[in-house]
């Protein structure tokens, strides 16, 4: 064949199902063509029925494999990425504290945290001791690594759990999946568990009988929880956890988008926050 | 009531007339011999048949169909039951897994994991001169998707489209969303019929169109 047609079957033969599936998955072409006719004309398939049988075998294998790989890969990737991001950030902060203490002994204008480390790295003349500036570089590198991981989470999370990400944000969605272990595990959690994921210490203290029950775990970072007055935060956390539980189930079992979840949650939070003013003035402070 | 395509019949299930096609059951739907009921509440295309749209399907083994947004294969399974070669495009991996099992018992149903907004991803597989494109994608830019996929449609082919208002803009009034979609669509397609599917699907518009 002198002219390349761009057909999926161009470089494979009739009974190579695995290679045919790969050609389906990896190929692309700008415009369609009468592929069945071309396949018969070129002798790739014996007739049109033969062509369609071949196409059926190849597309079934291609799609089954691709779906499985994507599903497997993505929520594991997300869990690793969010854990690595948290590790980088925690370590950066710890080292930054050590750095601030040390650099403070030689710097006339000492600062704190990762921002201080960035200043030391940017201004080479600030500190002469190379050991200290090198330590500052490590802190900055770790923080940059955390930012790169965060970017990756922003990109991957919406494909793994679109509804969860729409209700929370990519980082919170990834944290919840990570705490549960996988998207499937999260989809199987009751909403009361999702509400306190990440507050295990407080929960067990409560179960041992010497602490009040925690109102929220990592979903505290959700703006609907944080933005609600403390007295009503338990209600807000429960509402958020309820919708997140549904979103996780849709993402795992169905996979389609349900924009109505966002609307319903927004309406519920509005009702709860409307109580904020009332509760504060009477100082009732109940957690319904 | 308009004629149904060959291979789609109204049959009685538990004393109620329902749409049905012949094929392997997919989602626990009621069956009657080799026939299985088609639930219009779970299928936009089924709803369009129930509402008497001129969907211009003929039915039969020579009809070629491209189905965009096949999801778990609930509807495309019925389409493959009464049509010829049927290409089913779905973007999300989880429903694609179910789509594959629907395709396994249907030798002329071809599942493809691809993004309907990017036809180059499957133009090396989907043939030219398709008779009917069915589109039910829950993404923003549904008119765009229909326009991009015009390249697959025969000049005398038809587009059968279900527009989901909420996918386009959650906050806008559905009627405004539908007007916008129709406007955009009319660059490339002539709209033959457009009616709301509210009886079965809230905030959805059914459209039948042909290429200009």
TrEMBL record, chain A:
One of its GO terms (cellular component) is box C/D methylation guide snoRNP complex. InterPro entries: Helix_hairpin_bin_sf (IPR029012), Nop56/Nop58 (IPR045056), Nop_C (IPR042239), Nop_dom (IPR002687), Nop_dom_sf (IPR036070). Residues 160-274 form the Nop domain. GO terms for molecular function: snoRNA binding. Keywords: Ribonucleoprotein. It comes from the Archaea. It holds the Pfam family Nop. This is Pre-mRNA processing ribonucleoprotein, binding domain-containing protein. It comes from Halovivax asiaticus JCM 14624. The lineage of its organism: Archaea, Methanobacteriati, Methanobacteriota, Stenosarchaea group, Halobacteria.
Automatic annotation (TrEMBL), chain B:
It holds the Pfam family Fibrillarin. S-adenosyl-L-methionine binds at residues 74-75, 90-91, 115-116, 136-139. InterPro entries: Fibrillarin, Fibrillarin_CS, SAM-dependent_MTases_sf. GO terms for molecular function: histone H2AQ104 methyltransferase activity; RNA binding; rRNA methyltransferase activity. Transmembrane segments: none annotated. SUPFAM superfamilies: S-adenosyl-L-methionine-dependent methyltransferases. Residues 8-21 have a biased composition (Basic and acidic residues). PROSITE patterns: FIBRILLARIN. Residues 1-31 are annotated as: Disordered. Signal peptide: none annotated. GO terms for biological process: box C/D sno(s)RNA 3'-end processing; tRNA processing. Its EC number is 2.1.1.-. Keywords: Methyltransferase, RNA-binding, rRNA processing, Transferase, tRNA processing. Involved in pre-rRNA and tRNA processing. Utilizes the methyl donor S-adenosyl-L-methionine to catalyze the site-specific 2'-hydroxyl methylation of ribose moieties in rRNA and tRNA. Site specificity is provided by a guide RNA that base pairs with the substrate. Methylation occurs at a characteristic distance from the sequence involved in base pairing with the guide RNA. Belongs to the methyltransferase superfamily. Fibrillarin family. NCBIfam families: PRK04266.1-2, PRK04266.1-4. Interacts with nop5. Component of box C/D small ribonucleoprotein (sRNP) particles that contain rpl7ae, FlpA and nop5, plus a guide RNA. This is Fibrillarin-like rRNA/tRNA 2'-O-methyltransferase. It comes from Halovivax asiaticus JCM 14624.
């Amino acid at each position: 064949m002198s002219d390349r047609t761009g057909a999926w079957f161009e470089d494979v033969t009739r009974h190579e199902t695995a290679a045919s599936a790969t050609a389906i998955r990896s190929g692309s072409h700008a415009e369609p063509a009468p592929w069945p006719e071309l396949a018969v004309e070129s002798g790739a398939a014996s007739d049109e029925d033969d062509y369609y049988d071949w196409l059926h075998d190849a597309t079934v294998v291609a799609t089954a494999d691709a779906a499985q790989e994507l599903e497997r890969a993505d929520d594991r990737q997300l869990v690793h990425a969010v854990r690595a991001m948290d590790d980088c950030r925690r370590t950066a902060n710890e080292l930054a504290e050590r750095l601030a203490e040390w650099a403070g002994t030689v710097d006339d204008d000492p600062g704190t945290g990762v921002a201080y480390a960035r200043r030391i790295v940017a201004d080479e003349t600030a500190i002469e001791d190379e050991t200290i500036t090198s330590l500052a570089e490590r802190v900055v590198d770790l923080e940059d690594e955390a930012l790169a991981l965060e970017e990756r989470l922003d990109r991957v999370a919406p494909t793994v759990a679109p509804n969860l990400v729409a209700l929370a944000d990519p980082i919170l969605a990834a944290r919840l999946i990570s705490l549960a272990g996988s998207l499937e595990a999260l989809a199987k959690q009751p909403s009361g568990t999702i509400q306190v994921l990440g507050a295990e210490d407080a929960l067990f203290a409560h179960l041992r009988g010497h602490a009040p029950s925690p109102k929220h775990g990592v979903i505290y970072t959700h703006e609907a929880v944080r933005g609600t007055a403390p007295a009503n935060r338990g209600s807000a956390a429960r509402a958020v956890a309820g919708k997140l539980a549904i979103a996780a189930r849709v993402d795992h079992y169905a996979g389609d988008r349900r924009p109505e979840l966002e609307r319903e949650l927004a309406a519920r939070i509005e009702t709860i926050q409307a109580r904020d003013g009332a509760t504060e003035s009477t100082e009732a402070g109940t957690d319904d | 009531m308009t004629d149904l395509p060959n291979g789609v019949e109204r049959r009685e299930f538990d004393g109620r007339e329902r749409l049905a096609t012949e094929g392997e059951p997919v989602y626990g739907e009621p069956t009657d011999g080799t026939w299985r009921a088609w639930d219009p509440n779970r299928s936009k295309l089924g709803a369009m048949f129930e509402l008497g749209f001129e969907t211009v399907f003929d039915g039969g083994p020579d009809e070629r169909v491209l189905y965009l947004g096949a999801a778990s294969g609930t509807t495309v399974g019925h389409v493959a039951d009464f049509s010829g070669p049927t290409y089913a495009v779905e973007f999300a991996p989880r429903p694609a897994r179910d789509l594959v099992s629907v395709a396994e018992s249907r030798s002329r149903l071809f599942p493809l994991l691809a993004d309907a907004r990017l036809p180059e991803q499957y133009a090396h597989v989907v043939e030219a001169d398709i008779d009917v494109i069915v589109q039910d994608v829950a993404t923003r830019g549904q008119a765009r998707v229909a326009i991009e996929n015009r390249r697959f449609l025969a000049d005398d082919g038809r587009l059968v489209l279900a527009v989901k208002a909420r996918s386009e803009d959650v906050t806008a009034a559905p009627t405004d969303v539908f007007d916008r979609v129709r406007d955009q669509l009319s660059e490339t397609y002539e709209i033959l019929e457009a009616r709301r599917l509210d009886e079965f699907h809230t905030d959805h518009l059914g459209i039948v169109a042909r290429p200009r």
